[in-house]
Amino acid sequence: MLDLRSHVSRIVSSANQLALPPGAAAEGKFRALRAADTMAASWRRCMEGYRFDPGAKFRIESVSEAELKLQREANDELIHFARPEIDAMFGAVSLSGFSISLGNIDGYIISERANYNPEFYSEVERAGTAWAEPSAGTNAIGTCLVERQPVGVYTNDHFFYEFSALSCASAPLFSPDDELLGAINISIRNPELQRETLKVVLGLTSGLADRIGERMFRKAFRRNYILKFATGPVDHGLIAFDGDFQLVGLNHAAREMLRDRVQLARVRSLWAVFERDHRLIDLARLGGAELTLHLQKGGDAITVSLSGPMEVPSAGARPAASADPAPRMRPAPAPARPSARVLTLDDCAGSDPRMTTNVRFVRRVLGGSLPILLLGETGVGKDAFARAVHEESPRRAAPFVAFNCASVPDTLIDSELFGYGSGAFTGARREGSPGRLVEADGGTLFLDEIGDMPISQQTRLLHVLESGEVTPLGSGKPRRIDVQVIAATNQNLEAQIARGLFRQDLYYRLAGAVIDIPALRERTDRRELIEAVFASLAEGRRLTLAPDALALLMNHDWPGNVRELRHVLNRAVHVCEGGVLTARDVAIRPGARMAAAVAPGPFAAAPVSPMSFAGAEACGPEIEAAGSARHAIAAAEREAIVATLARCGGNVKAAAAALQLSRATLYRKLQRYQIVH
């Protein structure tokens, strides 16, 4: 182990000597560095990106017990699948002094099995500590989450000298649909550990991650057939398909290996990946069999093992059409609705004069087929209002079909909305698909986020609305339909029309009745809404809302509106330990006003753009389920950070002070939301 002076000298010189590949763009420099040398690239990120000093005294961040409990609840599914594998592995590695920990997507340790022998145990790695790279510098968990691949960090490879007695090996954990969930970590505090030993431990860690991922995948696709094949010394690809040989899921390893062969938005058939094999005709007899399949177009031969469904689907059940052939498992699932009761129009109106006028107007036009256009910020309850309109209309006995125009890839909107005939394209279901328009025949079609519909699909939708007929893809037979169309958007459609992104004639066709739903901060019945939401979430518990908590809630801007309110109160109800929910339980700061507020009016002004200052990247992958409360909070928080950085000229220190965050916390959020400053 090096002394402090040598440690600092090595890190600084190695990071500075790391050269960019020729022609590497400035904004992509860290990605280029990453490929060249993992450790040196991480050290350079720490110095240039996070402004860390390798010789500085460092204290690891940690969260309170209440916050740790909340994080564990948000990741309970991941913990459930990881625990059996961790327990089995711990029995072997603990004898040598190693501990095992589980980190979530934000780098917090949420579970651990530790060797508490003081000779080996490191107190800094206890549950609740923060190991994201922007918080703790180069370390196995944090750097693994950045790299999305296994990482071993040996003693002085850690950026901060305080951690130089530690050696750690981490491997990423991916959900069945390839979302990064966190990392599994094996570590020891032993400055005499040999580097070769850590390499062996890294292999054990990667194998552990592979087994945890397989547990999650098999549970997600328990009603399907699964092919398993090796992609590395300890890694395995998994492909799930149904009885018609249609692909329904691929794990991370399979996607990486077949990246050039499988375009998940288009490829549906197993035989688009492998050459047809007559032995698979009778799937029921092949459970547990091992056989060799050949990749399409003269590809390699791969030895696979086939396993049958662990659970028989219920009668009549069929998988729902999806843009991605795997059900979503999110790092932090959105909180469940507290009640299954559908809100009425009177519930939506409350005592707010504008909403009362809206409801009165809607009731006058109910009964016909006049399209309704709902305008308003994200989270104001446009979907609940649309459902309430349907439930009060003469069509309430017919289907209410919701279609989110922003959550389906452009290439799939055509088939999802308008349907397709038998054999319309490779991978299509043999019986075809009616599409959402036909499914809503006689009832209501709710087109959410209509402002995000591609212009090419807007033309088809306009034709359907004007003719009352829909022609499925690959079929020449139009079908007459009768639907009540309710569209909704938080976009400025006038600006979209001016930029050529939204058809003016479609707007006039949809805007039969325009309803502007006010933001929560503008509603005169805000207090009633807060108390009603609190009462529904606290149902079954003897909880009261303290005056200081109510005052804090009343004074907040609520950029995420009612959806954000539900999330904040749901969290507060879970965190509250007594019978009175106080301001301490509410995760918003007094006087903190987020910058994502949108101006009121029939056409809300466009929110602050994530590209509104130099150096900001386009918004990264969705981190929460679209339309969920967590998604609204995350989107509002990202916009607030981007706007604050813009006001501060990109100065992170000033932005952190303005947002009332520590610099480490802000850097962690910059990484999470993929904001380059």
UniProtKB/TrEMBL annotation:
UniProt-recorded Gene Ontology molecular function terms: ATP binding; sequence-specific DNA binding
InterPro entries for the chain: AAA+_ATPase, AAA_lid_NorR, GAF-like_dom_sf, Homeodomain-like_sf, HTH_Fis, P-loop_NTPase, Sigma_54_int, Sigma_54_int_dom_ATP-bd_1
Domain Sigma-54 factor interaction as annotated: residue spans: 348-574
Low complexity: bias regions: 313-327
Keyword set, alphabetical order: Activator, ATP-binding, DNA-binding, Nucleotide-binding, Transcription, Transcription regulation, Two-component regulatory system
GO biological processes: phosphorelay signal transduction system; regulation of DNA-templated transcription
Start and end residues of each stretch annotated as Disordered: 313-340
Matches recorded under SUPFAM superfamilies: Homeodomain-like, P-loop containing nucleoside triphosphate hydrolases
Database matches in PANTHER family: TRANSCRIPTIONAL REGULATORY PROTEIN
Name of this chain's protein: Acetoin catabolism regulatory protein
Species for this entry: Starkeya nomas
Upper classification of the organism: Bacteria, Pseudomonadati, Pseudomonadota, Alphaproteobacteria, Hyphomicrobiales
Gene that encodes it: acoR_4
